[in-house]
Sigma 54 modulation protein / S30EA ribosomal protein (Lentzea albida), 96 residues
Amino acid sequence: MDYIQVSLAEAIPEQARDYASARIGSLDRYAPDRVDFAWVNLTADKTVIHAHARLDLKWVEVQAYAEGHTVTEVIDLVRERMRRQLVSMRDVLVHN
């Protein structure tokens, strides 16, 4: 993956940047085409952490959103949602 940008709200610990980069960065193996850019935004309100992620492929954008109570939980949830989308896209291309 060429580039991953991780934005953290004040309430999110700095260690979350490395975890998000590693987890989202590993998605390129599932992509049907090269991933040019990845963006992850982690925010929090009083009781919930929110993760919004986007991958820009050569010809399409893949997005996912998740919320939960821990940083690792929301990053893992958003990663799994993106992974399913990428696998589905790859399967469609292979069968066409």
Summary: The chain has one domain: 4-95. The CA atoms of residues 30 and 42 lie 23 Å apart. The first strand starts at residue 4 and ends at 8. Residues 71-94 form the longest helix (24 residues).
